[in-house]
């Protein structure tokens, strides 16, 4: 069994694509129109054949409620691993990414959290080796 796709709910797919590609450096993988919405995925530029991240509309009331509740509790919806968290943090800050937590030591890793502007908090993680 392999994980090839995961998703984050977003309040606007166009805005999300802009943020995830221009601010985070991901690459658009799939863009398939499905009526009012799209099957819209991005991948890491470092792993173009890796796990896809679906930018899924939060149009379902249950999805919107879940997304808002998790955000209000300051719980990151997803975690992305990085090799050098301080370097990634500085690069993203220069691009205008708003962090809610600066790099902070945690058991077994260093973490930081940012707002993806689409209704989610995202954590970046540098595991301690």
Quick structural overview:
This protein is of the alpha/beta class and 129 residues long.
Please, could you describe this protein's structure?
The chain has three helices and eight strands, in the order βαβββαβαβββ. The chain is an alpha/beta fold. It has one domain (5-127): 2,3-Dihydroxybiphenyl 1,2-Dioxygenase, domain 1 (Roll). It has a four-stranded mixed sheet. The longest helix has 12 residues, at 61-72. The mean pLDDT is 97.
Overall SS class? alpha/beta
Largest β sheet strand count, sense and barrel closure? 4 strands, mixed
> How far apart lie the N and C ends?
26 Å
Largest sheet: spatial strand order: 1-4-3-2
Choose one word for the global shape: globular
Number of helices, where a helix is a run of at least 4 consecutive DSSP H or I residues: 3
Low-confidence blocks of residues: none
Q: State the CATH class.
A: Alpha Beta
What is the element string, with H for helices and E for strands? Answer: EHEEEHEHEEE
Q: Do you know the CATH topology? A: 2,3-Dihydroxybiphenyl 1,2-Dioxygenase, domain 1
Q: In the CATH hierarchy, what is the architecture at level 2?
A: Roll
Q: What is the total domain count?
A: 1
Fourth-level CATH superfamily: 2,3-Dihydroxybiphenyl 1,2-Dioxygenase, domain 1
The number of E-state strands comes to 8
Mean pLDDT metric:
97
Radius of gyration: 15 Å
Query: Could you estimate the helical fraction of the residues in percent?
Result: 25-40%
Q: Strand percentage, roughly?
A: 35-45%
């Amino acid at each position: 069994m392999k994980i090839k796709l995961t998703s984050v709910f977003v309040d606007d797919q166009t805005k999300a694509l802009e943020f995830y590609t221009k601010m985070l450096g991901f690459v658009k993988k799939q863009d398939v129109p499905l009526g009012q919405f799209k099957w819209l995925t991005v991948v890491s530029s470092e792993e173009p054949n890796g796990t896809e991240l679906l930018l899924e509309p939060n149009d379902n009331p249950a999805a919107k409620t879940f997304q808002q509740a998790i955000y209000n509790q300051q719980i990151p919806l997803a975690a992305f691993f990085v090799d050098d968290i301080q370097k990634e943090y500085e690069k993203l800050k220069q691009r205008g990414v708003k962090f809610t937590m600066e790099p902070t030591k945690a058991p077994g890793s260093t973490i930081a959290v940012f707002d993806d502007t689409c209704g989610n908090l995202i954590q970046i993680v540098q595991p301690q080796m």
